[in-house]
Amino acid sequence: MARSLVDSADLARGSPRAPRRESGPGPPLGRLTGRGQRGLRPICPDTQEVLVPEWRPRSLRRSRHTAPPAPEHSMDPRSDDERPLADRPLIDTAIYRDGVRVATPASLAETYRHLRREPGTMAWIGLYRPAEEELLAAADEFDLHKLAVEDAIVAHQRPKIERYGDTLFVVLRAATYVDEAEEVSFGELHLFVGPNFVLTVRHGQSPDMSAVRRRMEEDPDLLRRGPEAVLYAVLDNVVDGYAPVIAGLQNDIDEIETEVFEAEPHVSRRIYELTREVIEFQRATQPLLSILRNLEAGFDKYGIDEELQRYLRDVADHATTVGERVDGFRQLLDKILTVNATMVTQAQNDEMQKMTEASLAQNEEVKKISAWAAILFAPTLIGTVYGMNFDLMPELHWDLGYPFAVILMAAVCLTLYTIFKRRNWL
Fold it and tell me: What is the CA angle 188-193-196, rounded to 5?
């Protein structure tokens, strides 16, 4: 199975691997079988055999046209597809016997040689953003399944556990809380756990695998329990790394609660951003419970050490606590968002009420001014009419003209005043 991937050890050393040959007669080199030039295979001039290229995983295939992105990348437009490979992908590799480091090979090829000639030992290889050829060389050496290898090359996988024969493939997502930016940074770790080897492929700065290795080397009694002990140590390190993230998110939520009740103007945006962080964190932690349950289900079948079983159950308890806290954060943020929306609506209603009351008061003043203007307009109109002083106006020479004009002005003003008063304009 793994030999069909390609002879990756040759690729890692830079020497090309000869293609497989398919027996059959054919024309000499320079001619092609069949008609035309497209889709036909070249012929070896010495043996007259059809040359068939070796199968290669999709991640290494090349064509004239640009290959479409992997689904893991296309589903997330924010994924970092152009991140550079590490200059030194081999972070650390060691050979252990009975929990003690007995060799520190300088290269992967040397590690493989040590493991072959020294039975009863275990190899622990740590890679950081390796090139495809290096990972394929390890796949060829340890007989890793091609689907798991492709997942490790492409990255951007959800946390999961798969068993391929006697090899476990585990994907974990570590998390780190960044105080300066008040956000959660995630790293991705792939583990291949076999009978006599552990291969870790890291696609981020976290988790700190050197700390895990130091802890295990300081405890040979635990390390001699084999690759499953390394898997436990990695799981424990990842789950323990969630604790500072939980504390940071709790602190952010407390601050947001204070800002909500103090009616801070930009709190809605902060709630939204923190909700996104919690959702992403939940995607990293929630599958852990399923991973640990699957491990627990295989304790008896695969003869897991009883002491390791206790350690793994302890990790499961911590992961359950983390999952419950994250679920609580999600619900609490939903409620905070609802309370904030209610308070914003209430503040808007209060503002609208104040504006309405001010508008009503202004209308009352306008009505009063309009009523007095109308009352004063009536005598002004009468006085203007009789102030024209035309000779043919009979009222000008009438003895009762002046009293009549004054009484008329008073009557009109009194009538208007009575009307406006009844209508509460005055």
Answer: 145
| Number of alpha helices (DSSP H) and beta strands (DSSP E) in the chain | 12, 9
99: its two tokens = 């929990």
Cis peptide before 207 (omega within 30 of 0): yes
d(CA 146, CA 2): 7
Radius of gyration of the chain (CA): 42
pTM of the model: 0.66
User: Beta strand pairing status for 197-202 and 122-128?
Assistant: parallel
- Which residues, 6 or more positions from 369, have their beta carbon under 8 angstroms from its beta carbon? none
Residue 419 makes CB contacts below 8 A (sequence gap 6+) with: none
Contact 187, 204 (CB under 8 A): yes
Mean pLDDT by 10 residues, the chain (426 residues): 38 39 40 39 50 47 46 51 56 90 90 89 92 89 92 89 91 90 89 93 87 92 91 93 94 90 84 91 91 83 80 92 93 89 82 85 84 84 74 71 82 86 81
